[in-house]
Write a structure and sequence with these properties.
alpha+beta, two-stranded antiparallel ribbon, 4 helices, globular
Length: 104
């Protein structure tokens, strides 16, 4: 696959991700997707296969009321791509007990 085609798929995925469209995200992925989320140099989430990925995506949709991921860099290697990005999240639920402890 050409880099421009792969980049188009990545952009479609991110558009779906940013709008909480799980079916749109799944629609551009291979059945054998191996997904790893790396934060601060550590893998904090990993799935193998489309069903595990769907489960994680649907769980994540419940955690945030807003989110936006932006591509900083893409490294292409054959038919694979590694994406460095930045994500902003707004939690769906705020724990008022925690907030009260912080403000006292």
């Amino acid at each position: 696959m050409e880099n421009s085609n792969l980049k188009d798929l990545i952009e479609k995925y991110l558009s779906a991700y940013n709008t909480f469209n799980t079916d749109g995200m799944i629609g551009v992925l291979n059945e054998n997707i191996h997904f790893r989320n790396i934060s601060k140099g550590e893998v904090n989430s990993e799935t193998k296969g489309i069903q595990e990925f769907r489960t994680l995506a649907e769980q994540s949709n419940q955690v945030f009321s807003q989110r936006r991921q932006v591509i900083k860099n893409i490294i292409f290697a054959g038919d694979k791509a590694e994406i460095a990005g930045h994500t902003w999240h707004t939690p769906s639920v705020v724990n008022t007990t925690t907030l009260a402890k912080r403000s006292s």
